[in-house]
Input
Amino acid sequence: MSTLLEKHIVELLAEGDEKAISLLYEHYGDTLYGVALKVVRDEELAQDVLQESFVKIWRKAGTYDASKAKLFTWLFRITRNTAIDKLRSLGTKNDKEIQIDVSDVYTIGVDGVQPELMDMRKHLAKIEPKYQQVLEALFFEGMTQQEASEELDIPLGTIKSRLKIGLRELRKIYDPSAMALLILMQWL
Output
């Protein structure tokens, strides 16, 4: 897409001109649909996500800041986050249908887990602030590594290094099996 067209779309969005949505749909609709489809893996659901995304884009048009991200990056993040939210809401609905009392799934004992060791915020204070900052953003604020990089104004490679070192420092504090559980919880 040409830079001039992108600037024009941004100007229309800032003015609240409905032509912006038409232009966005025309130039980005297929790509954003592909993003949604990749996350939700269902065509109908991806169409719903795309529609919800365009509503959010319209409502948040005033928050777009070209100095923080390119237009496509902003659109991509809104669409991706909307798709993830949609999956989570469906997962919550599906979780309510599970009947624990009739489950024959093997349950892992919790005898070895010591709750005082799982107080991550308390133990997080024991590591260097630069690692704390990254772990807080990723674990407690739910940011992706890319989002943390942009939000904290730290290069992506540095975010990855600080995550790795921070987890290694926490591993010294936590039992290795408890740390694995903690890492798995991040992805749920």
In short: The radius of gyration is 21 Å.
